[in-house]
Amino acid sequence: MTMKERLAQSQAKMDEMKARVAKASEKAKNARQMRREEIEAEMVEIDRAIEELDHQIDAQIADDIATFEGDIAAEETNRAIARERRESKKNTALLKAQMRVNAAKERVAEKKAAKERDAQEKRIADLLDYADRCQKTAIAYALEAEANIFAAARETAEYIEKYGE
Questions:
Q1: Inter-residue contact 91 to 75 (CB < 8 Å)
Q2: Where are the alpha helices (DSSP H) in the chain?
Q3: What is the pLDDT of residues 53-78, one digit of tens each?
């Protein structure tokens, strides 16, 4: 195989590799964009859910406070009537309050999990950005290889010109 044939074969392989790299880069870019849009949509939805949950919690706490204050007022008016009955209601109110506290703790844990999920999604987006930079570096190296092939072709032409085949 002559130098010209080898050079032509190398050029053909380089063109094929360029096409593959360009196609893979475009696919990765589209995938990243779609994932970013999905993540942004999910983040907006999570923020809305958290706000709604905060409003519900505030309303529930206000209702619970009003209910609890009403229960205390009723207990004070009925104190003389039935001491045991009042104690029973207090215990029930405490149990309800404990249940509300437990529910609030669960909501806080859910919020924490949502924040951790958001952080992980950000790490994923950062990794995708890093992959993009790696692809750009690979393209730069491919271009450098192409330039070296052209330099080798020039050197080959000079060699043939000076010494023949």
A1: no
A2: 3-77, 83-163
A3: 889 888 988 888 888 888 888 877 87
